[in-house]
Structures are given as C-alpha cells and as structure tokens.
Specification:
membrane, mainly alpha, transmembrane, single chain, VanZ-like domain-containing protein, 6 helices
Length: 138
C-alpha cells in the first residue's frame, strides 16, 4: 500500500510547504514592498501543487487501473486545499485574513497547471496509454 501512496510524495511536500507558508503568523512575515507579490506566490504554489497532483494521479491510474479522472480530481483537491487554507487563515490566525484574491490566485495557478499539462502532454488518457505502452515494451 505504501508504494501506492508514495507517488504523492512531491504533492504532499508541496502541500506541507503551502500550509507552512499560509499558516505562518502574519505579523512575522517579511515585508518585501512589491505590490501583488503574494498573489504571484499563491499562483506558483498552486500551479506546482496541481502539477504534482496530476503526475501522481496518472501514476495511480496506471498502478491501480482506475477510471481516469486525473484532471478533475487534481483540480478539486487543489481548489479545496486552497479554500481550506484561506478559511483557516480567516478564522484562526492572528495577523492573517481570508482574501478572495488569494483564492483567485490559487484558482488561476491550478488552471494554469492543468493548462500546461494539456499543452505539453495532451489528453491524460493518451498520456497514460503511451506510458503503459512504453512500460510494456521495456
């Protein structure tokens, strides 16, 4: 069972990094002075999380021979995680607040991650089939 979860290690590490940065007390974060930099960071974090989720979900489809819903599952997990982080910030942390523009940046990063995957690799089903064929040929 562990090897089946191991495919999520990069997504998990990214999620832990996002949580650490998101839940760090607001008054203790360094002030950079570049307007909108935090939104760029949100975009990059959720782009990265989505990319790793897609890769892990594809591996799970291959290992477990699951029905492929890679992009949808990756999208839902990344968006739900982003919402959860914002809700926690707004409800439980001093110096932090719930921000709709953070959610928009998270969502934009998630969509961009999916978009780049589609641009580079095309349909996940075709990608999975190619991966399966190359594994069989080896």
């Amino acid at each position: 069972m562990l090897h089946k979860l191991e495919v999520y290690r990069y997504a998990f590490i990214t999620a832990v990094l996002i949580a650490a940065l998101s839940l760090f007390p607001g008054g203790q974060t360094p002030k950079v002075g570049i307007e909108g930099l935090d939104k760029v960071i949100h975009f990059i974090m959720y782009f990265t999380l989505t990319w790793f989720l897609i890769q892990a979900n594809i591996k799970q489809v291959i290992i477990l021979k699951l029905k492929d819903s890679t992009l949808l599952v990756s999208f839902i997990v990344a968006v739900a995680y982003g919402l959860l982080m914002e809700i926690i910030q707004g409800a439980a942390l001093d110096g932090r607040s719930f921000e709709w523009f953070d959610i928009l940046a998270n969502l934009t990063g998630t969509i961009a991650g999916i978009g780049l995957f589609l641009a580079v690799f095309g349909n996940p089903r075709c990608y999975i089939i190619r991966r399966c064929k190359s594994n069989v040929e080896q």
